[in-house]
């Protein structure tokens, strides 16, 4: 599941938090069979054949290495994943042994008892050391590790090279310069958005908050406490609100826009800049502006710094009810390992999680360098709690930004209100 898709449908996982009872008895009863059928769930894709080809290679290799083992792969729709996993957690006999899942869904799945902690098995896997700590954290809840990060989606700053050349400007080196450049673009080209970035673009504006030293929330014992109204977070919110202004991206156009719409404006030639993902590269290359754009890391508050990006992506995990734990972990390691991460990149454009593979890709495909540089600078993630599903489906953070953009509330007022809503969600779990 690419990161853009994960953002739009996160709310579905609220079914797990609100409907699924806490699972306490769905662990396998000590069984660890080394033969039979290993069931695997992966997400279906719009263009699925290249993914299937790579997975089939991994299946053939695994079956050749394991006598009397058959790997049965099913591709499930992303938009029904909440219901499918909900049923699987409550009926292990119908559940897969291994599954692909969106990393922002994990906390709810762990709360439902659905995935196994495989920390022990990963401790002696040398390839796991090639995953940066901030990326590895996307598969962790509390002290447990519930899978292997399989691929990532991260964002950087797309800009029109021809437009900046006409203005005799270099790419922005700070967030302040991002805003100033957006103003200059729109002043010179009134029919163009200086920067296309919407109020409903959570993973577009969070880097502004993180770059200023702010955060969504901080850990407090076993839970979280909101930090969105801290002085640092408000500085980031205030700077992003300058983007959602008539002289950069008018609120009547931009306040309700999400990430997809933000990028589509750029692809259509209607914006001078946008915050887009590595997963948007092919679409831009297929557009009329393919020869007139470039990408740099979204800068931070100081020249030479990079705003921390959100580390969206998908992981591979082992279901807690499996009767084939050893085989499940071995297949997870194979499919999430170096060989098939590279193969999946070649087939689907998925950004690998292993730093060694990232370095190889950066050398062979210069388009990926800004995204890898952004990850190398240190990525960030949402609070690892099932409450995130409630927060996301309730649009707490976009509503905060939209109220500011529309003039319904000041930065201080809207941030304080959002902080209260976050704390309510954290308290309810």
UniProtKB/TrEMBL annotation:
<feature type="signal peptide">
    <location>
        <begin position="1"/>
        <end position="22"/>
    </location>
</feature>
<dbReference type="GO" id="GO:0015768">
    <property type="term" value="P:maltose transport"/>
</dbReference>
<dbReference type="InterPro" id="IPR006059">
    <property type="entry name" value="SBP"/>
</dbReference>
<dbReference type="Pfam" id="PF13416">
    <property type="entry name" value="SBP_bac_8"/>
</dbReference>
<keyword id="KW-0732">Signal</keyword>
<dbReference type="GO" id="GO:1901982">
    <property type="term" value="F:maltose binding"/>
</dbReference>
<protein>
    <submittedName>
        <fullName>Carbohydrate ABC transporter substrate-binding protein (CUT1 family)</fullName>
    </submittedName>
</protein>
<comment type="similarity">
    <text>Belongs to the bacterial solute-binding protein 1 family.</text>
</comment>
<feature type="compositionally biased region" description="Acidic residues">
    <location>
        <begin position="410"/>
        <end position="429"/>
    </location>
</feature>
<dbReference type="GO" id="GO:0055052">
    <property type="term" value="C:ATP-binding cassette (ABC) transporter complex, substrate-binding subunit-containing"/>
</dbReference>
<dbReference type="GO" id="GO:0042956">
    <property type="term" value="P:maltodextrin transmembrane transport"/>
</dbReference>
<keyword id="KW-0813">Transport</keyword>
<feature type="region of interest" description="Disordered">
    <location>
        <begin position="408"/>
        <end position="429"/>
    </location>
</feature>
């Amino acid at each position: 599941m690419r990161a853009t898709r994960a953002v739009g449908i996160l709310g579905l996982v609220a079914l797990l938090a609100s409907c699924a009872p806490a699972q306490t008895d769905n662990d396998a009863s000590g069984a660890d069979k080394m033969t039979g059928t290993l069931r695997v769930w992966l997400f279906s894709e719009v263009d699925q054949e290249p993914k299937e080809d790579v997975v089939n290679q991994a299946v053939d290799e695994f079956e050749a290495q394991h006598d009397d083992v058959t790997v049965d792969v099913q591709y499930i729709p992303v938009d029904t994943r909440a219901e499918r996993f909900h049923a699987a957690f409550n009926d292990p006999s119908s559940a897969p042994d291994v599954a692909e899942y969106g990393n922002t869904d994990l906390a709810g799945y762990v709360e439902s008892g659905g995935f196994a902690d495989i920390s022990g098995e990963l401790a002696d896997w040398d390839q796991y050391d090639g995953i940066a700590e901030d990326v590895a954290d996307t598969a962790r809840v509390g002290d447990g590790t519930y899978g292997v990060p399989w691929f990532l989606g991260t964002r950087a700053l797309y800009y029109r090279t021809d437009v900046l050349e006409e203005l005799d400007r270099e790419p922005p080196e700070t967030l302040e310069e991002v805003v100033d450049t957006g103003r200059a673009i729109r002043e010179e080209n009134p029919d163009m958005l200086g920067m296309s970035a919407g109020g409903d673009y959570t993973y577009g504006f969070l880097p502004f908050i993180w770059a200023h030293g702010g955060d969504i929330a901080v850990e407090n014992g076993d839970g979280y406490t909101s930090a969105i109204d801290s002085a640092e977070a408000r500085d980031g919110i205030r700077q992003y609100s300058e983007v959602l202004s008539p002289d950069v991206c008018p609120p009547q156009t931009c306040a309700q826009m999400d990430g997809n719409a933000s990028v589509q404006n750029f692809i259509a030639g209607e914006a001078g800049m946008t915050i887009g993902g590595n997963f948007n590269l092919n679409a831009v290359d297929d557009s009329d502006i393919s020869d007139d754009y470039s990408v740099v890391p979204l800068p931070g508050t100081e020249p030479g710094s990079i705003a921390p990006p959100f580390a969206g992506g998908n992981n591979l995990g082992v279901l807690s009810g499996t009767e084939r734990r050893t085989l499940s972990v071995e297949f997870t390691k194979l499919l999430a390992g170096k060989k098939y991460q590279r193969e999946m990149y070649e087939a689907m454009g998925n950004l690998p999680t292993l730093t060694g593979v990232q370095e190889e890709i950066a050398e062979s495909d210069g388009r990926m360098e800004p995204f890898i540089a952004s990850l190398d600078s240190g990525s960030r993630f949402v609070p690892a709690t099932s409450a995130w599903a409630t927060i996301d489906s309730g649009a707490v953070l976009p509503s905060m930004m939209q109220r500011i953009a529309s003039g319904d509330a000041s930065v201080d007022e809207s941030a304080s209100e959002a902080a209260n809503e976050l704390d309510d969600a954290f308290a309810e779990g």
